[in-house]
Structure formats: structure tokens, C-alpha cells
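REQUEST FORM: STRUCTURE PREDICTION
Request ID: SP-0412
Submitted by: Lab K.M.
Chain count: 1
Length (residues): 60
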Amino acid sequence: MNNVVISSVSTGGGGGGEATESVTFNYGKINLNYIKQAREGGAGAGNVPAGWDLQANKPI
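STATUS: Completed
RESULT:
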């Protein structure tokens, strides 16, 4: 992520009594790499790069 701002932080309690925390980010660009899973055996079956530039409103 580029040009990242933490826009929200909240805390609370989970159903089992554990503490939870939620953090929200706003960003200008994000890149990720999705790894496909093979139907047979569940092994990795290739990478799929993806990303979005919110400032330019287009894929990266």
C-alpha cells in the first residue's frame, strides 16, 4: 500500500470474551498477489498479480 492513512481504530469484545480490534486503512495504491489453489491436492497453481490506484482510478 502507498499513501496510507489509518482512518479508524475500534476495540471490543468477542463472543468468547476475547478482546478484538478493528483497524481501517485508506490508501492511494494497493498491490497484492493472489496464489491460486489447485483443485487436486490444494497445492499452489500460479500467481495472479493485482492492484488498484485509487488516485488515478485505474488498475495497476
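NOTES: The mean pLDDT is 90.
Reviewed by: T.R.
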